[in-house]
Amino acid sequence: MIDCAYRLLAVIVQLRFQIALVLGVLNAVFLLVEVSQQLDAPSLIGLLSLFDSPLILGLAVWLLAQLPPGVVFRRAAAGGGVAQSNGHAAVDRMPTGCRVSGWFRVAEAWEWRLLVPSTLKLTPWGGVELFASSSSDGERWPRLGARSAGMLDWYRPVGPRPPIWAADPSVIQRLLAAQTRRERPPEPSERLVIAAQAVREVATGWQYAGLRRYAALRIAHRGFDRTERLTYLAFDSAEARDALRSRLS
């Protein structure tokens, strides 16, 4: 029953701005009705009542906009701790990726990401490094299929193949750039690093997104700007979550 309530709360949090929009439309319709009634029977109290509902709704929307990005997290019970395991078993089950909800470093700014697939790496000093590839990575230009000269093409070379330096230099540069982009793997453009000394608390529990539930860890830590932040690591299984939790301990 509690799990169902958290799933419903996650849906409401995810749709909070849409709900505010619907309430705004309903408030506008109600305001038109009040204006028509005020025109039929003018009164001072009715005139003042035209401003209370828009002010209350505007304050509610402003408060929603000030809230941090919504993540519904339920902490695990005190008795349901991390399963104890030996070192080799923990290494075997150690996850190399997860879904991250937190503030990623993008170029020179910080941007919030919700449940973005990321690679997971533990630093030798006990910190956590998370990398997420941007959707814009990869080839920008479509590949063109190879074409061969036909028997009746007047420009078909006769004799030995001409040297590559005889072609247009700009064409050669484009071919080399395209080949380099294909051979070079895309570098992660979004990065989140949590230093070991910046970690305040690591909580084990469940993260809810819509109607789905993930085994997750909530890490309370300080950012590079010394502000308190929360980062959520969601996993596909509780075993992967517990393996990372044991390593962070």
Give the SSE map.
Blueprint: H1 2-14, H2 16-40, H3 44-66, E1 72-75, H4 87-92, E2 97-106, E3 109-122, E4 128-132, H5 169-183, E5 190-194, E6 199-209, E7 212-222, E8 228-235, H6 238-248
Antiparallel strand pairs: 1-6, 2-3, 2-5, 2-8, 3-4, 4-5, 6-7, 7-8
Structural features, described:
This protein is of the alpha+beta class and 249 residues long. It has two domains: 2-66, no CATH class; 72-134 and 187-248, PH-domain like, CATH 2.30.29. Helices cover 37% and strands 27% of the residues. The protein contains six helices and eight strands. Strands 1, 2, 3, 4, 5, 6, 7 and 8 form an eight-stranded antiparallel β-sheet that branches. Helix 2 (16-40) runs antiparallel to helix 3. It is extended. The relative contact order is 0.17. The model is unreliable at 84-91 and 135-158 (pLDDT under 50).
Task: Give the radius of gyration.
Answer: 29 Å
Provide the number of structural domains. 2
Low-confidence stretches: 84-91, 135-158
Give the total of beta strands.
8
- Helix and strand pattern: HHHEHEEEHEEEEH
Task: Give a concise summary.
With 249 residues, the protein is of the alpha+beta class. The protein is 37% helix and 27% strand.
Which key features would you list for this structure?
249 residues, alpha+beta, PH-domain like, 2 domains, 8-stranded antiparallel β-sheet, 6 helices
